[in-house]
Amino acid sequence: MNFDAVAxxxxxxxxxxNHDHGEExxxxxxxxxxxxxxxxxxxxxxxxxxxxxxxxxxxxPLAVYKGSFGExxxxxxxxxxxxxxxxxxxxxxxxxxxxxRHYKYTSHSLRAGTAVILHAAGIHAIQIKFLLRWRSNxxxxxxxxxxxxxxxxxxxxxxxxxxxxxxxxxxCAASRLIPNIV
Length: 182
Prior knowledge:
The protein is mainly α. It has helices at residues 38-52, 77-92, 96-101, 107-120, 125-131, 147-162, 165-174; strands spanning 8-13, 23-28, 64-66, 72-74. The chain contains seven helices and four strands. A hairpin with a 5-residue loop joins strand 3 and strand 4 (72-74). It comes from Cylindrotheca closterium.
């Protein structure tokens, strides 16, 4: 498939844990970074499924892989958790005991981590909720005090400090704040 010709595509989630079955999301190609392209990744997932299982099987999940002896395995939460824990061990110098007692890496860690990354990148909370398919505002519980947020705060303070009094007054009026300028 020529992915350079595909700008965007709708993806339909026929079954979801949050019960929004049949929901459609528009995905756009990431031509600047093809290795991070959601459409290419989805195509690879569907192609793997077609090779291993066959496209006529529509009642089972797409996430599947072949073992070293040709057996079929489904990618599920336990497989993801095991993989995440294995990946976390070396860079964080964790033992198996550490992982069992303190670091509960699960498939949900990907979702929570993505919410933190999007928030730190300045993505609005409503967009985070929409993009990650959160039904409630519970993702706020996962947000962390990361350095990037502090840097954003410093930039905002610096902008305010260099603003003229009329710019500050206009900004306060727009946000319904009463300026207290000496």
